[in-house]
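Let us work through a complete example step by step.
Step 1: write down the sequence.
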Amino acid sequence: MGKESIVTGLALFAMFFGAGNLIFPPYLGLESGWEWPLGFACFILIDVVLSCLGIYALNAAGGANAAIEGTLGHRPGLVMNTAAILCTGVLIATPRTAATTFEMAVVPIAESFSANAAGADGVTIDLGVAGGGSASLALFSVIFFAVVLLLTIKESRVVDIVGKILTPLLVLGIVILVVAGIVHPLAPIQAPLSTTVAQDGILAGYQTMDIIACVGFAIVVQDAIRGDGFKSRKTQLQVMAFASVIAAVLLGGIYGGLTYLGATAGGMFGAGVGQAELIVKITNALLGEFGVVTLGIVVGLACLTTAIGLTGATAAYFERITHGRLSYRWGVLLVIGCSLLICNLGLEAIIALASPILQVVCPPFMTTVVLILFLRFIHSTWVYKGAALGALVASLLIACFDTFGVPGFVAAMPLQEFGFAWLPFAVLGGIGGWLAARPAHKTKDLLASPVEEAVESGDSLLG
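Step 2: predict the structure and record it as tokens.
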């Protein structure tokens, strides 16, 4: 079981460690300055701890889709799962893969080529890409998503093969980068540039979208463990628990190193640098031009494989929930069309657009996943519904306040300075649901559900 746990843990790490996530920890470190451990702790809580707990909790409750829809009810659960799929597959993650590739691979490589050409013969060559113009991004995005379309319309093993090669290369490159930054720090760590370091860490954790991606990841991990020959649910969950710990430790180490690099970069680059631009500048300062080009190529290919995987998974999901009315191929075309349009907003605009959306989607999702850990003790669906509704209402208010400055009372809400102002609402919503369930005789309505049967099977470790 030890070998299988390690292999599964490495696979789970590879799924969570997306190339697009590279841009968030360094920028968090830049903003946090000498308070970077606080920002990192908040980031790792949302991005790693809750995500890995979510993988375990969802599978322990009988499966990801069954757990969400079983505790919230079919329609609310379907809405939550669909919101997660829309974020990861259509509105944010897929367009961001192309925009990240352009900023981290195409622009730096084009600038390097132009500089080398100018240095060789004294003539400056304008490729139309260096600097990242909108026309260049539009042309690149068409090429990028054309490749995604070709490799998604018909399943290809090329994606799996390339993905297995790219993840180790990407990890090796990041480890070399972090070690170089520890041995030769870029600059002394300075005062924070932000007055809301804890909130910044929480929001950066939302941006990775790992907490909502754990629905799909849980299914993949569960199938992999069963494929390894583990038939007992107790043994499956033990393997999953150890694998989650391994993935969490590896992710924490990589992200911690990147956050530290960003903190040391504050004295060199200061405020105003873009998120993708920052990691490129750090790489150039530590590893030189060759390092920038190599990292750009690996990140670009990794983002391409991620886009292919997300597009295929999203199209398959919509084919399933529409019972075939939206075919897989039309789903692929729809995802690519939307992603192509959103991609051309640019990376920074996509991140800004994602922030209020994820502020609304993530809290009720996290609330539900955490409560599922206690299925043995919470037998009423009304508790889950009330807690999720409370978190949703609060997150809507917080997103409106952060985006438009209203309503003003949000600034005085408990835990607002730490980014957890929605938590008291979730607790009150859960209590309200439990109180309302008593006169409605719904305090134990979960006992007859497949979710509860999975937990009470005798082999589950949940609760």
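Step 3: interpret the result. Residues 123-127, 454-463 have pLDDT under 50 and may be disordered.
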